[in-house]
Amino acid sequence: MAEVDSLENGGTVPVSIEEVLDVHDIVKLSTDLNRATGPITPKKHVGAFQRDGKLTREGLLARYQSFLVQELQTVSRNLYGEPDFAKHLVLYDRAVQERCKPAGGCEGPFFDEGALPDRARAVLGSLEIDTEIADA
Q1: Percent of the chain scored above 70 by pLDDT?
Q2: pTM of the model
Q3: Is the pLDDT higher at 39 or at 72?
Q4: Torsion angle of alpha carbons 99, 103, 108, 111, nearest 10°?
Q5: How far apart are CA 132 and CA 121, in angstroms?
Q6: Virtual CA dihedral for 28, 33, 35, 41, nearest 10 degrees?
Q7: How many whole angstroms separate alpha carbon 46 and alpha carbon 44?
Q8: pLDDT band at residue 104, thresholds of 50, 70 and 90?
């Protein structure tokens, strides 16, 4: 942009971006922008959600995720008037962070992952959402 400004000679001679950047520069810029703004992709393969009509561990956690997203949308609509707004906002609360601090001192806002299925069963069970049958 500085080069475009200097070539414009104080604004008297308009200069287009194409005069400063060649096709290679534009392709590189486009590639870099796509990489920086692209969607997050999973780092591992997720197993089957059900086997013989029963939820697998993955299926239980997917059902729990479904509940959590709907809970987040409910809170978001109540607080902000827009059900999807909270999906783009991360709030950090000291009381929550202290309670959710992982064992072993690793960094990150994570509960103990080993207890995740038990927590999912407890939460879903308290809402009378089936944690065993896939088609429930």
Answers
A1: 88
A2: 0.69
A3: 72
A4: -60
A5: 9
A6: -160
A7: 6
A8: low
> What gap in Å lies between CA 134 and CA 59, rounded to an integer?
8
Number of Cβ within 10 Å of residue 13's Cβ equals 8
Contact 64, 120 (CB under 8 A): yes
Closest CA to 63 of 75, 52, 74, 54: 54
Name the strand (E) or helix (H) holding 2: helix 2-7
Q: In angstroms, rounded to a whole number, what is the distance separating the alpha carbons of residues 18 and 14? A: 12
pLDDT band at 134 (very low <50, low <70, confident <90, very high): very high
In angstroms, the CA 121 to CA 127 distance is 10
